[in-house]
Every structure is written in structure tokens, then in C-alpha cells.
Fold this sequence. Notes:
With about 230 residues, the protein is of the alpha+beta class. Helix content is about 35%, strand content about 20%. It has one domain.
Amino acid sequence: MAQKxxxxxxxxxxxxxxxxxxxxxxxxxxxLQPIQDRNMRLEKMQNILASINIEVExxxxxxxxxxxxxQTKILNHEGEEIEGxxxxxxxQEEIRKDLTERQMPxxxxxxxxxxxxxxxxxxxxxxxxxxxxxSLKSDFNTIGGADFDHATETPGLGSQIAxxxxxxxxxxxxxxxxxxxxxxxxxxxxxxxxxxPHEVDAISGGTMTSNGxxxxxxxxIRIYEPYFKxxxxx
Length: 234
């Protein structure tokens, strides 16, 4: 005959199991956090390097990073350097602040004798955040490379912002026109003019994500203009 348990016994047993499972999960999360943090740091280095067209495996990115990144800075809205570690700035938190209170990370790289200025960007796609890095050459006008990523964009559509074919379009594009007016680069639906230095082709079927990239570029690069002007005046 099967043994019967009282409701009280079942409740106590279930409560103990919940507590034990919660403790195990909490312990695992604590033990795995340093590994997760390291992987996120390595991935960030990998993405920064990709914006200057240096392709490297994530696990090797820390070794390669110091070969190309010669300086890091945090800037304020006036283009002045302030104290802090650029790598530790959480851009998601910064873009919620008023511009006058933001910390703006900047990475300076040197590749085969040419200097690049790498700007981190963050914006919104169709379903969630999008982000990336754009490098500018020393004229503070010509894009050297770009790397974008997303959290939840539609596979095969908006998710294509993370693909090389889309990102490679930005190489050589200009953020200022011939009169020196800020233009940025727009992601254009129905085909960009190949002779227009401020346009790239949009993602087929990913209009909202494409628009999000355009807005992210326009707003994210523009706030660095005071720094560009200070450097050009030196």
C-alpha cells in the first residue's frame, strides 16, 4: 500500500526544495559571474577591433587589443578629457542622461601608421537595443570601419546589421559634406546612390532597424564634434 503524506509534510518538503534550488542557483551565478564578465570584456575588445578591420577570435582579443589601441579617453560634452576608465563606461546608462552630464568613451588606434578614432554608439531597433562602433580616420570625416550588433532584431531581416556585408558599406563614407556641414551616413531604403558619400543600402525587410542605425549614427557621432574641432585646431 502506497504511503500517504500529510499536506503539511508536502508543504515543508516543497519549501525546503525551493530554498535548496535557490541557493544552488545563487551559488552558480556567483561562481560564473567572473567568467561572464571576462567574456563580455573580450567580446567588447573584439568588436572595437572589428571597427578598424582587425578580425580576431574572441579569446585572443585581449592580446591583440593592446597592439592596436594606443589610447583611451572619456570626454565631456565640450570635447574635454575627464577622469575615468573608458572601458568601464556603460553607454546604455549614459544615453539616458542629459548631454551635459554624459561620459563619452573614445578609443584611439593605430593601424599601419594611420590613426583611427573609435566611437561607441547605442540606439534602438525594431524590437530592442542596437549598438556598435564606428572608426574615423584622422581627418575626422572618413569612416574607416564599422561594427554593429543587436539584442533581438528579426533573424534574416534586422539582424543583418551584424553581418559583414552590411557593415562594409560604411568604409570610406563621409560624415561631413564638401561645405563642412555635418551629414552623418543614412541607411537608405530602395537603394543608396553609390556616388553619394553619405548613403548606404538599407536592409531588405528591415526598415525600422535600418532607420534605427541611421539615427544611432547621426546622434552618436554628432556629440563628438566638439572634440573633433579641438583636435583640428591643434
